[in-house]
Structures are given as C-alpha cells and as structure tokens.
Amino acid sequence: MTTVGILGGTGPAGRGVAVRLASAGYEVAVGSRDAERAYEIASRLEPRGTGKVRGVSNSDAAKCDVVIVATPWESTLETLREIAGDLENKIVVSMVNAMQKQGREMQPVFPAAGSCAQEIAAVLPTSKIVTAFNHLPAAQMEDLDSGLDADVILSGSDNEAMAEVAVMVSAMPGLHAIEAGSLALAGTIEAFTSVCISVNIRNKAHSYVKLEGIAR
Amino acid sequence: MTTVGILGGTGPAGRGVAVRLASAGYEVAVGSRDAERAYEIASRLEPRGTGKVRGVSNSDAAKCDVVIVATPWESTLETLREIAGDLENKIVVSMVNAMQKQGREMQPVFPAAGSCAQEIAAVLPTSKIVTAFNHLPAAQMEDLDSGLDADVILSGSDNEAMAEVAVMVSAMPGLHAIEAGSLALAGTIEAFTSVCISVNIRNKAHSYVKLEGIAR
User: Is B184's CB within 8 Å of A149's CB?
Assistant: First the structure.
C-alpha cells in the first residue's frame, strides 16, 4: 500500500488531508518540525484506532512513497532543502498557498517563479510536482461527517504523476479530482484560495469550489 | 428602468449576457465597432420580439446607465479611451480576461496593473469598476434553455457599485452573484477563467464554477 507523508501535517489544512487519506486506506505519516507534537496530534485524529495515521518528524514523513507539502509558505523552501535527498524522483504534492490579509480581505501573493509550486519545483528538480487541496475548507475536511463534497483542481509538472494524484484524491471521501493542466496554472489555482477565503469572510460562509457540468 | 450597454456585445460572451439581461427585463444595447453588424446580431438574439435588445455602435452603448465591457482584451483600452467621456462616474462592469493558448492549454496573462480591470480603472479614473461574468460558458449563457445554474464572482473598486451589480446579476436567470472583494482580487478571478477553459479542454466538458455552502 502506498504510504503518504505530510510535511507540516499538524496544521489545520494538513490534518484534514491526513484524516481523509487514512479513511481511504492510505498509511499516513503526519510530519512536523516537532515529532512529539506530531505524535500527540496524530493520536487524536480520526479515524481513530485504525493505526493508519502516525506522527513523525518532517524528515521521516519525507521517506514515504508520496509526500504532501502542507507547511506555511514562509518556511516551505527551507524545510524542503533540508530533506531534498529523500524527495528525489518522487511525487511531491503541494497544497501551499501564498497570501496576506489586507483589512477584511485575503489577497494573493505571487512568488517570483509565479507560484509556490514552481518555487518548489526549482528546489526539487527531479521531483514530480502536483498541486492539490488548495481550496478546501480545513474544518470541514477534518470532520468526516461534515457532508463535504468538493472538487480538487490539479495542476502538475508531469501528466502521469498528476493522474496518480487524481486517483489518490478521488479515493478520499467527499473529494473529486479534476485535472487542469501544467504548473503554468498553479499560481492561479493557489491564488484562487484567497478569493474563496475573501468570499467566506464577506459572506460569513464556509464555501468551497465545485464545477458544474463535468463527468464524475 | 436601467439601460445596460455592452461594448463588444456581438461576441459570444457579450451575446449571452445580453440575452439573460433582456430576459430579466433590462433594456440592453448591444454595441459593436460596426453598428450594422450589431443591429443584425441583436435582431436574432432571444428573447425575440420583446424589443429589449437593440444593436448599436459602441459609442451609443456607452451612453446607457450601466456599461459592460465585453471587448477582446487587445482592443479594450483603445475602445474605452474613445468613449471615456460617456463613462464618467458610471458603473463599468468588466468581463474581460487576458489569456493565451499554449498547446492544448489556456494560460493566464497578467497586464502590468495586475488585471484587465485595474488597467480599465486607470483609463477610467472616475468610473466604478466591477468585474463579473468572467467564468461563464458562452454557449450555455446564450441558450436560455441550457439549464445553466452558475455563480458569478464579483470584485470591485466600490462596494455600493458592486452591490448594485450583484442585484443585476442575480436577477438574470441561471446566475447568482457572490461578492468577493476589492479589485486586488480581479487578476485572480480573471485568470481563473483559463483554469476553467483548460479543465474543459482536457476533460471535454463545458463546466462552470459553483461554490457550495453559501446562502442563496
């Protein structure tokens, strides 16, 4: 069975992905800079008692078959440089978004390469980078009973890797993967997260993206 | 009753908006550089025989109460400069997107100001600029029987103007307006159109955006 490591997996965004991956049968290693903290948080995550979610250090999480990056953007590249050797030739899924709050609105920030994913690709030149999980509401993700039914829009540096990630995503309860295209689209997909958050702040909602009119 | 002019309204995107505005009871002036062509196209648009859709020159369309910009990005600023006097202090709705095809994928292009809407705002400093209709599928928009049920995500330079546009959009059959925030979000909203088109090319679909979990 494929093992999945989540760097920065103890944050709200990473926890929701961990829960739904475990629920789909994947062996999940939730990584943190602080392995103690990861152990403690993993032991509280659903689905409990299945032994599917372990808490580990980020460097141990990086040893899994597929590695998801759920770190804050500010520390992402530094974290990846430290464990780059373990990520060679692997599929690396970025769910990292760069944004800043301005008043009551969240606004996108564009790294020099155009997106967080393209910056990650520059640091990990042999890895296959796929973006996923950018727009998902963290609280609803972590609660398996929230009724979440969301689309996950993917972009990637490699079509085969993107297709593998699509299978993984669509296996997770409440999620359906939709492939968009190359990493040239990653900046827009990442930035759209700030539009979703701004919509939610302004409309006091917990909305998420769904595309109508596409086969599922 | 509010009159609405559509600059470049004879193109596929403008026609769909004209049809649904007229269907909601608005008096619509479909503008074109070629008034003859506008007259001919307007006479064929649904809802027929209601007298709600007229074909006119762009400069006549600019005299309406609210003006929608549906021109190709390449000719937008030149068109607006010619009729800027008629647009002073008015609500100007931009549905303009900048993008280019790369292989089988549509990729966003970012004008220097960050978005087409912000470029338009610089040319029309007294107008209230609101973005809308960016992600809509043209063919389904023009066909009132297509079953379209789409969200329209708005950004704007002025909250009151954005609220007025939201009322207009939600009055149109099959559309629901959702306010996102300031024009700092316009570039991302515009660019997301290329993600939607790329999704549709890759998945042979005619999908459009809907946000789940928001009150309607």
Answer: no
